[in-house]
Amino acid sequence: MTDTEKIAPRKELDKNLLWKGLYVAALIIVCGGMYWATTQTNYIWRWNRIPQYFYYVDTVKVSAEIEGEVTSITKKGDDTVVIVKGDGDSEFYTIPGSDVLVSEGDSLYMGDAIGEYQLGKMGMLMKGLLITIEVSFVAIILGILLGLFTGLARVSQNPFLKWSAITYIELIRGTPLLVQIIMWYFVLGTIINNLLALAGLPQVPSLWFGVMSLAIFAGAYVAEIVRAGIQSIHRGQMEAARSLGMTKSKAMVKIILPQAFKRILPPLAGQFISLIKDSSLLGVIAIPELTKATREAVTTSLMPYELWFVCAIMYLVITFTLSMFVQYLERRTAEA
User: Which ranges does the record mark as transmembrane (predicted)?
Assistant: First the structure.
């Protein structure tokens, strides 16, 4: 190896280090600028109050439901059992722990406190996060199934299947998701629940109308992704499979779809990440997902900056995790 060949990789390495250093410097400048901007606003930051929106300990009071006298207070394991006897009636109350506020012989009126105990509860943001994950996961699964079958129908030679798929795709992609959510809840939801009420059946919760609107919306985009992936495979693949005696459906499942899956994985990941963010629109039909929970927390706490920053970070964690998982799948499929 000549001296010139030895110097070239070293120059390339120095250039990469320079650009990496510039990136770190730019990141520090941006973060520093944001911090400086926050110090210039007339706002009191209360980050210490954020943890209670994930988990907090609540004091639960046990109240008397009848008028009467406390006749017995006994320990049962770690709990305390209080018996109250009234006129021809008696009630017993189990209080976790031993924080009892009455004594034997005390007279109680309805609503008087008998005892209290500490109970850990999930905060508003954590509840909203779990609902967002639940809704998005179910909508993604349904969207994949719907999009797969619609994409296959889109490339079918059957006019009924093909035209039906085109109609569904163009109708859903041509209208805003917010309008679809409102129509699902206020129009279709009202009709469906009224019919169920007439039949004496339980009504469908609003959560499921939100899930269906997201799934149907995602299914239309997945269908186009599947269609493009199938058509990107050379026609010779299908012809070779048919020449070996495979049926068209078997060749599609065994030959075409596995190859198409590798190509459609990145756009599918992008669609599902968008779906998670689009779930924030479900707040318009009173589904307490993450964005709606944050909005309610801001209303009660008057901490808009902290809570919206935390909300954005929580969405980022979900989408970044999904992105990393898809990259892992891409590496596995590339090795296969």
Answer: 21-38, 129-156, 177-201, 207-226, 307-329
Question: Residue 146 pLDDT > 90, yes or no?
Answer: yes
Residue labelled with tokens 């891409």: 330
pLDDT in tens, 40-71: 778 888 888 899 999 988 888 888 888 888 88
DSSP-assigned beta bridge partners for residue 55: 122
117 forms beta bridges with 60
Residue 46 — φ and ψ, nearest 5°?
Answer: -130, 65
Residues 6+ apart with CB under 8 A from 77: none
- Is 132 buried (19+), middle (13-18) or exposed (0-12) by CB count in 10 A? buried
Task: Look at residue 97 in the predicted model and tell me its pLDDT.
Answer: 78
Distance CA 138, CA 289 (A): 14
CB count within 10 Å of CB 102 equals 19
Q: Is residue 74 within a helix (H) or strand (E), and if so which, with residue range?
A: strand 68-76
| Contact status, residue 323 vs residue 269, Cβ threshold 8 Å | yes
Tell which residue, 173, 152, 162, has the closest CA to residue 260: 152
| Cβ atoms of 263 and 232 closer than 8 Å | yes
Report the distance separating Cα 174 and Cα 3, nearest Å.
62
Question: C-alpha distances in angstroms, 96 versus 72, 110, 231?
Answer: 16, 21, 64
Amino acid present at 135: V
